Amino acid sequence: MKTKNKNSDFLSLKESRAIQRSNLAAMKKYEKAKRKKVSPEYFTTQLKDENNILEVENLHTYFFTDSGVSKAVNGVSFSVPKNSIVGLVGESGCGKSVTSLSIMQLVQAPQGQVTDGEIRFATRDFVLDGKGKRIPIYVKDEEGNTVTTDKLNKKGKPVLGKDGNPVQVPLQARSEDGIPLYEMQEVTYDIAKMPTDDMYRIRGKDISMIFQEPMTSLNPVFTVGYQIEEVVYLINPLATKKEAHEKAIEMLSRVGIPMPETIVNYYPHQLSGGMRQRVMIAIALVGNPKLIIADEPTTALDVTIQSQILHLIKEVQQQCHASVMLITHDLGVVAETCDYVVVMYAGKIVEKGTVFEIFDNPLHPYTKGIQKAKPTFETGIDAELYSIPGVVPNPINIPNECLFKDRCGERCACCEGEYPEEIQISPTHSVFCHKYKK
Q1: Cβ atoms within 10 A of the Cβ of 347, count?
Q2: Which sign does the torsion angle of CA 88, 89, 91, 94 carry?
Q3: Which of 436, 137, 107, 85 is closest to 293 using CA atoms?
């Protein structure tokens, strides 16, 4: 009796149902953890290096699909030093954007989940009293006494006491932007452990993101000024309409948009691509963030506008003393803008170092390949551009081995076995390749 050969390209009904049951159980587990009510001590941690603003260690972000588990980010570790620009480089589908979305807790759920690892982020948060409320900072006079003012009702009128006189309350200090001040403390949070409700405390204020395509990120039915004002209200709920509108105009002016008093009333479709991207940068800067994630911010722009946007990002980074994580596949952008480079391939890091080390002394064959694939002035008109042979492996049920070996021109017998460990070449330069084992 002849037996039919099983086609490994297709799942049987039994296998498909087993995958669905496993996925459902895993998704319920991770979604429940996001909604769990915990004290801040549960997700409070310490940086391994105080000079860093962000430390990502052994990050795993998986997508539970009907075909199996897609390991989009599979054990990524890197850090972002303070007041620096770090470039995350790699071809499409290598996990760059998923890494950034994991840091922001914006991975599409319930299918996408951060399953393991730590994301340590240094920030400043409110000091809470015994009842869990913020502790205000009050204005003091020259003698150190607390200044008082009339208590106002919702209509802005003084509240009268039993004696008919206005009730006096301590005057709370405010920042230059009119934001009420509270006692703050330096703290480091593990974003991978933070429940969703607690993430709102830092997302948009201390850590913000500039998305790849501004036309799909901006709401077409609201003016750009209204969308900036939304962020102002999020950061300062007590801001008046006038204060929020003035802040929107100030931010548009800050990112180099001409006639901000007029542009603030424009809709996104009335602006060019470069202007829309400047609006996205303005939205990201409202809260004076410590970390800005820029996800390929120049992909949809022409070359001259690209240069302007990159110059603006670098200028803003220096003015705000913030750190930037720049995601791109363009090595020209990296060379012009970044201080450090992290090269990713198939959900893993293959090499990382300073921008000079990566460009002057690339070690991993993949890093050499993407540098070779970029056209230069020396490339002839009729010359054929180099391309790395083969394709990126399927991230579903991916094996624990060197994932580039089937495309590598330097492959040898030492490339077999498990995924190579990190090999330190210098204090700032490391590579994941069997060739450099001692």
Answers
A1: 28
A2: negative
A3: 85
Mean pLDDT score across all residues of the chain: 87
Whole-number Å distance between alpha carbons of 233 and 244: 7
Q: How far is CA 203 from CA 34, 196, 199, 390, 423, in A?
A: 15, 10, 6, 39, 34
* CA-based nearest residue to 286, from 361, 209, 360, 354: 209
Structure tokens at 277: 């991207």
Report the phi/psi class of residue 182: left, alpha or beta, with left for phi > 0 and alpha for psi in -120 to 50: beta
pLDDT category at 1 given cuts 50, 70, 90 is: very low
Q: What residues pair up with 71 in beta bridges, in sequence order? A: 62
CA distance 264 to 287: 18
Q: Per-residue b/e over 65-101, b at no fewer than 16 CB within 10 Å?
A: eeebbbbbbbbbbbbbbbebbbbbbbbebbbbbbbbb
Residues 6+ apart with CB under 8 A from 380: none
Long-range contacts of 416-422 (CB under 8 A, 24+ apart): 419/348, 422/77
Confidence label for 214 from pLDDT (cuts 50, 70 and 90): confident
Q: Which of 128, 119, 144, 139 is nearest to 52 (CA)?
A: 119
| pLDDT per residue as tens digits for the range 351-370 | 999 999 999 999 999 999 88
Helix axes 241-254, 273-285, angle to 10 degrees: 120
Count CB neighbours of 243 within 10 A: 17
**Amino acid present at 438:** K
Asked if pLDDT for residue 399 goes beyond 70, the answer is yes
pLDDT of residue 160: 85
Cα–Cα distance measured from residue 394 to residue 74, given in angstroms and rounded to the nearest whole number: 13
In angstroms, the first-to-last Cα distance of the chain is 56
* Six-digit token string for 225: 């000024």
Both tokens of 230, joined, read 């939304």
